[in-house]
Amino acid sequence: MRLGRWRKLVQGSGILFGLFGATGIGMTHIIFPGLHCYACPLAVTVCPIGLIQNLIVFGTPPFFWLGAIVAYGLLAGRGFCGWFCPFGTLNDLLSFRKVRIRSSFSLSKYVVLAATLFAAWRFADTIFCKLCPAASVSASIPYLFLGVAKVNGPFLIHMATLGGTLIGMVLISRFWCRYLCPMGAVLSFFNRVSFLRLKLDASRCAGCSACAPSCPMGLDPHTEYDNHNCIKCGACTEACKFSALSLGFGLPVLKRKRDR
Amino acid sequence: MRQLECAMIVVCALLVSVAAHGQQPILEFTLSPQPLRLASGGQAVLSIGIENGSMYDADDIEAIGLTGEGLALAEDVEPIELIPPFEAGRLDMLVAADSGLASGLTDASVQIIYTYCIGELCFQFAESLDFEVAMEEAVSETVDVAPLPSDPHPTFPWRTVAGGFGLALLLGAGILRRTGRAPGLVVFLLLTVAIGALTIGVIDRQHKQAKGIGTVLCTSCVGIEEARTEEPELSSASIAAIASIPSEIELIVFSAEWCHACPYAKKLVELVAAQSDRISYRVSDVEQEPELAVQHGVAGSGRTVVPAVLRVDTGEVAFGVEDLETRLLDMLRGNE
Q1: Which domain holds residue A22?
Q2: Are the Cβ atoms of B197 and A130 closer than 8 angstroms?
Q3: Number of domains forming the structure of chain A
Q4: Fewer CB within 10 Å: C terminus or N terminus of chain B?
Q5: In B, residues 216-275, which contact A (CB 8 Å cutoff)?
C-alpha cells in the first residue's frame, strides 16, 4: 500500500481515538499527542495545551506532562501533526494551495506558545482555550447542539477564530500547523531527534526540487528534510522520481550546521 | 544540534521557572520578641511582622489559634483585611500564661490563615509559626525563631528535583555541544527525561490530576460562556414568583473549587433558597463526590460540566450561569 494511503488510515485512527468516548469508556489519563480539546464530549484524552495551562494556573510542576511530551517528541516529533492530529487532518482536507512562504514567518507559532503559557500564568486562566479553533470544532459546536452552550459572546469568538483559521487553511496549506499551533511548536523542538524521520539519500538526489511543490508545509524537502516545520507526511517521498527521500524510523543523525 | 540545545534550555527554563514560581505562600513572617517572656499567670504581646513580597494582594490575614502547654490567647486578634503587593503589616496578639506553663522554654505555635487571588482564582494558605516561650526567671538566651514554610507538596522536594532535572539537561546539552554527533546520547538523555518525568508525575498522582482536569469542565474555562463575577440580585418579580412556589423543592449545585463560573451559581441559588422555606439546596463538589453527579445525570461519558444546578425531583439540570436566573425560575415553576 502506498504511503499516502497508510497516512490516511492512521489519520482516520487519530480521529477515532479523539472520539473514542463514543464507546462510553470516559476520560483516561492519556495526554493526546496533538491538538484535541478535552472538552469534546467524546474525548477520552487530555489536550496537552489545555493541560499545561491548567498546571500553570494550579502551580503544579508539570512532570507528567513533560514526560509524555518528551516521549511523543522522541517517537515522532511533528510526525504527529502529519499523521495523527485530527485538527492537522482538517488542515490537510483544506490544503489546496501548497504555497511556499518565507519560513521565518513560521516562528509565529513559538510566539503563540509563549503567549499561551504567559497568559495562563498572568491571568490564572486558560485563555488560549477560549480562542482555540480546535475547541471550536470539537467542543463549542457539539455543546451548542447538546444544549449546554448558547450563541453568546464566547461562542462567537470561537466561531470567529475557527472561521479565520479555515480561511487561512484554504489560502495556505496547513496554515494552522505552519504559523499558529502551539502544540506544533512544542513538538518541533524534537523534530530533529525523533525516531520517525525523513531521510535524504544525497547520492540519488538530482537537486531538481520536484519534491517542493508537494510539501504542504511549503518546504523544499531535499534541502530542508530535517526542518522544524516538517510534519513528516511523506508527500515528498512520493513526489521524488529518484527515490532520494524516504520516511522511516531510526536513530537520529545529528549534524552541526557546518557539517551540512 | 542548535535546535536540540534550544529544546533542552527551554525545558530546563520551564522546569526551573515552574519550580520557582509554583503556587507558593506569598507572605514572610517574623515573630518578636524571641523568645516571648512570660510569667506564670501573666500576659505578653507577641508581634508578627508580615511582609508581602509578591505582586498579589494578600487578604484576610487572620490568627486562628495558638498551641502551647499552659498558653492561650487572652483576646481575639484583629485580622488584617489586606496587605497590598510589596507592603507589610503586623498582627499583635496578647498571649496569656496560666499556672500550667512549664518552667524553662516551652514550644508554642500560632496558626495563621490568609488568602491571595490571581484574577478570580484564589488560594488559601495556612501557616504554623513556631516560637518559644520562656518563663521570666528562666530566660537565658535568645533563640532564633523561623516560620515553618507551608509547602503545598510537603512530601516531595519538588524544587530540588526540578532544579536537578534542569541542571542535568543543561549538562547534557553541554556534552552534546562538545561531542557534535551523539545520537545514542541524545536518545538516552531524552528517554531518561521522559521516563523520569513520567515516573515522578505518576508518583505525585499527576496523571490523576490530568484526568480530573479533563473530566470536569468549567463552562467559562473552555469558552462556552463568560464567568460572572458580580453579586447576583433577584428582581422583585422573581422574588414574588419564588415565594409563590407551593411545593417542596430540593436543588443541588454542582461545582468545583477552581471553577470561575461556580461562585455566581452558588450565590444565586443561595439567594433563591433564602426567598422561600420550601426551597432547599446543597452544594456538591464534583471532585469530592463524582458519583453524585453521575447518579443525577450531570455527568455523561465520564464528563461533568460545572456549574450545574439540578432540581432533584424532576432531574432537570441548568448548566452554566448565563441567564441563570430565568432558567432557574423556569425550572422551579416546572411542576406548577
Answers
A1: 3-188
A2: no
A3: 1
A4: C
A5: 217, 219-226, 258, 260
